[in-house]
Amino acid sequence: MNPLGPLYRAIEWMPIAAQDAVVLLVLLLPALVVGGLVIFGYRPFSLVRAMLWRFRWTNLLFIGLIAVSVGIGVGLIAQERGLRQGTARAADPFDLIVAAPGSEITMLFAAVYLQPSDVPLLSGDTYQSIATAENVSLAAPIAFGDSYNAYPIVGSTPQFVTHMSPALVEGAMFRGHADAVIGSGVDLTIGATFTPAHGVGDAVEHDAHAQFKYTVVGRMQPTGSPWDRSIVVPVEAVWEVHGLANGHAPERADQLGPPFDPDYFPGTPAVLVSAEQLYANYALRAQFQTAETMAFFPGAVLASLHGLMGDVRQVMSVMAVITQVLVTTGVLVGLVILMRLFARRLALLRALGAPSRFVFSVVWSYAATLIFIGAVAGVGVGFLAAAIISRVVTAQTDILVNATLSWPEFHLVAGFISLTVLLALVPAFIALSRPVITDLRS
Amino acid sequence: MTLGLTINALAVTAASGRMLLDVPKLHLAPGSCLGVRGPSGAGKSTFLFSLAGLIENASGAVTWGETNLLQMPAGARAAFRRRSVGMVFQDFLLFEELSASANAALSGAYSDPAHQKAIESKAEEVLTRLGISHGARTVDSFSGGERQRVAIARALASDPAVILADEPTASLDRKTADALIDDLLALVRDTGKTLVAVSHDPAVYTRMDRVIEIVDGRIATDEAAR
């Protein structure tokens, strides 16, 4: 349960940005109230500046520790959101997937994120029933199994390429079985030829299809998905390369794309389906949720995964705050030790007649300043961490992740500031309990 | 405003039970200057801190004017010091990273806004009189004599009735010490303040109106300065 839920419900009439700003303010309120009460009527900041300057390197170390712990915490949480958005964007073009019964997640990873695994195939008759079902505008079979220079080669139809990339960035759609359209991130040029390797990853056999060459004829628009690093070729070619029938009767062997002949259809692990109307996808899903087929919305499976990640996110948020508080507690313990170095100055203030609350405000303001600067620097570190981790995740998964800090992270930092400036009251109390005469003579 | 001092049965005992200070009776007229001398460890500083109300386990009466410090809680004693006592220490105890002006006007940071301007103005006036013209410079580059002058300006900035000085010339060379004590006495006498200065330095206590010698926590001699 989100502890801020009741607050959000109370202000749901406000614009979203205003709600977030109000929540930020509410989270900062304890710090502001404590600060106001502690400092009210005094001007401790010249002394705080002096204390900050006197032990500037130690203070910088404390600020750095806080900044790194805050930055990594919020950076990771932002990353989780960026990953969710990236995976959702990558799945966006895939309305409905029909496959043989099995794991929806396995099939989602195979079809959407191009992480193929061994799955049962759908027969030609099944494909035919899908392709000819009412309201189906696209029924694209896919065929995996080959690669070139670590780029997966995916067999499908010209209609599927148009669905993924309504316009090509350069070149044209494949017209022959040996033509290929490449994703935006594939390092090949139009007109380049290549021989597919059998398999993907470490298990590739480079010479298995040595007799076959594809020619690059077009390049798709960027999609922000693993398809940007894919090479899409006619599904007929993939079947032919593997010595199978090419989906069409011999007299129509040169045809590309549907209709396919069930008698010559070697099988497909999944059919990517799009309906003419959005609502029709639901009817199609119901229609193909049978003993022989499994139909699912990638978005819905992803939502379930994200739901699980939502729990993880909450755990991550709590862990991030706990980590930050632990680091800050360490810093505050350091401050208590550092206060011994300041003890003579604080004793001087008390000997001169400064009110206890003033001495308290000097120590608290000093600690709160370190925490505040550390937290603000942590936001900067968080932006940097999110950008760096995004690059790494994008490079590793081919899913475009553009993580950046947003209101939830700012709220986390605000909560962190409030919690830790309350903890900063402890060294201030400890400083007051020190003996004046002993410290003056130290 | 001037304040006189009356001590009755002042006793300070260590946690071990050892007697640190035993002053049955002492009276100091308002505006007078008292020198306190004696061997190291005799109780001079304990005596001075008792006059400031800084010793927690003191008994008896330390009365400035009508105010008996030993009957007051710590907060009220601090308020009295804030209002009526300026203190000067042997090793200056300045905030090295602050300017001379900021150090001298330190009490302005915790005074009410009405008094803050007066404190800043008085601090500047005393600094000028003591020859510290570069008030904006941080004191970490100051000589010992300059630092002690800043400390004196800090003690006088809130225009207290009493100045308590603990070995004010101990960290200075002879020439600087003489000049400093001249300046301190001139400032104190011009404004009728009461001064109690603990010192090993004959050049300090011989220039006071009266000198007491503390030995083993007791006043051994009490005489007008020569």
Automatic annotation (TrEMBL), chain A:
Coiled coil: none annotated. It is a multi-pass membrane protein. Residues 320-432 form the ABC3 transporter permease C-terminal domain. One of its GO terms (cellular component) is plasma membrane. The chain crosses the membrane at residues 21-40, 60-78, 291-309, 315-342, 363-390, 410-432. Its main location: membrane. Keywords: Cell membrane, Membrane, Transmembrane, Transmembrane helix. It is found in: Cell membrane. Pfam families: FtsX. This is Putative ABC transport system permease protein. It comes from Devosia crocina. The lineage of its organism: Bacteria, Pseudomonadati, Pseudomonadota, Alphaproteobacteria, Hyphomicrobiales.
From TrEMBL, chain B:
Keywords: ATP-binding, Nucleotide-binding. One of its GO terms (cellular component) is plasma membrane. It holds the Pfam family ABC_tran. It comes from the Bacteria. The keyword Iron does not apply. Residues 5-226 form the ABC transporter domain. GO terms for molecular function: ATP binding; ATP hydrolysis activity; transmembrane transporter activity. PANTHER family: IMPORT ATP-BINDING PROTEIN. Belongs to the ABC transporter superfamily. This is Putative ABC transport system ATP-binding protein.
